[in-house]
Amino acid sequence: MKKLLGMTIVFGATMVAASALYAAASDMPDWAYGVPPPGQRPNPPVRDDGKMLTLPGSDLQFTLNKIRGRVDNDTPNRTSPADWFPNDHPPLPKIVAEGDQSRGIVACSLCHYPNGKGRTENASPAGLPRDYIIRQLHDMKDDMRVSGERRKQNTQQMVSFAKAMTDEEIVQAATYFSSLKWTPWVRVQETNTVPKTRSQGGMMIALTGDQAGTEPIGNRIVEVPVDAVHTETLRDPHSSFIAYVPVGAVAKGKALVTTGGNGKTIACATCHGDDLNGIGSVPGLAGRLASYNARQLYDFKIGARHGDMADLMHKVAANLSGDDIINITAYLASLPAPATVAYTKTAAQ
Ligand code: HEC
Ligand code: HEC
Predict the structure, then answer these.
(1) Whose CA is nearest to atom 25 of ligand 2?
(2) Which of 28, 105, 111 to mutate to test the pocket of ligand 1 (most atoms within 8 A of CB)?
(3) Pocket of ligand 1 (CB under 6 A)
(4) How many CA atoms lie within 13 A of 316 on its CB side?
(5) How many other β-carbons are positioned within 10 Å of the β-carbon of residue 142?
(6) What atom in ligand 2 is closest to the CA of residue 307?
């Protein structure tokens, strides 16, 4: 009986942990996790036909497979992804440029781009503090940072890369990405109507052709590439994003961010620095993608991110509603980025 009781308690504890993780679904910013709209049919896979593709401003040409870091259409074999603008960042560490197929690590530059600007469905490591990046990769290794949305497969992949990385590679990648400056990447527009969208691997993209149209924004942010072909097909690391946000969101977000909203949350500058560009090992928030920040606030709120320092964010996020998360992240995205130029090449390089 005692044993049975023990098992019951263990089972009960697991249930509580699981329901804490997936509770409060109504406040979940599902728009930010890129969950496909109901009924969305998958797009047919796009095959490389051997054609060389070009990008304005770059002298280089690549096949589609090289752009997406694949050796060919039919095997999972990987190669280093295209680097359209090798002069706009310092030399890439091996792990960032190539990953390591033998350990299942995909090149960081594929998803986060060689310049670390990243996309809505992943993250933007450029310009984050080195110690912060190191801590994140260790938190992922130690199962203290997962996604609050079970279907978000690319975060699960990211965790598997962190687990396979050596301490040395973690330091190399963190040193590299933190050496880049954060520059403008998203424009915020308040609006009542937005383009109809689909989710492409977690990134929302405006529909084109016969399917194109508009719809009411409702309670969400719709953050899409300014140019879907540049971002999705060409993986152009200079092609940025636009965040359509509900009318009034920026002002409401400003009030919460700057005052903490009468105890609902805590003024962000207390820890993130006066202009929210980060300080010490606390990351910058200003001018960064709304969907990424919204996912993180929800992940902190439900404890999916629960490393030692992440616990400081739990109190900040605990009482935020879905609307608060929209307003806060709209305001943060509307703030100026700390720099205009990410990197200047010196003669030595
Ligand atoms: C398959 C795409 C993919 C690849 C390749 C990839 N990442 Fe990520 N990365 C992600 C996703 C997805 C997230 C998390 C997004 C989230 O939590 O919502 C992420 C998050 C991160 C973060 C956290 C950023 C922050 O602001 O806290 C860091 C740091 C990071 N990645 C570093 C790396 C490094 C280093 C590599 C190469 C070894 C790499 N990533 C390769 C998809 C990728
Ligand atoms: C008590 C200190 C503190 C306050 C106040 C605070 N933060 Fe944070 N925040 C942190 C720390 C520390 C981290 C890094 C957590 C980690 O290392 O996992 C963080 C991380 C974050 C991240 C994740 C960034 C990324 O790149 O993944 C977001 C988003 C964020 N904070 C938003 C906010 C917002 C919005 C506010 C104000 C409403 C706020 N924070 C107030 C300490 C704080």
Answers:
(1) 283
(2) 111
(3) 95, 105-106, 108, 110-112, 122-123, 125, 128, 133, 136-137, 147, 154-155, 157-158, 161, 165, 173, 283, 295
(4) 25
(5) 11
(6) 18
9: left (phi over 0), alpha (psi -120 to 50) or beta: alpha
Residue nearest to atom 38 of ligand 1 (CA): 108
Sign of CA dihedral 250, 252, 253, 259: positive
Is residue 285 in contact with ligand 2, taking CB distance under 6 Å?
Answer: yes
pLDDT in tens for each of the 349 residues of the chain?
Answer: 333 333 333 333 333 343 344 444 578 999 999 988 788 888 888 999 999 999 999 999 999 999 999 999 999 999 999 999 999 999 999 999 999 999 999 999 999 999 999 999 999 999 999 999 999 999 999 999 999 998 899 999 999 999 999 999 999 999 999 999 999 999 999 999 999 999 999 999 999 999 999 999 999 999 999 999 999 999 999 999 999 999 999 999 999 999 999 999 999 999 999 999 999 999 999 999 999 999 999 999 999 999 999 999 999 999 999 999 999 999 999 999 999 999 988 766 6
The answer to whether the CB of 148 falls within 8 A of the CB of 295 is yes
Ligand nearest to the CA of 124: 1
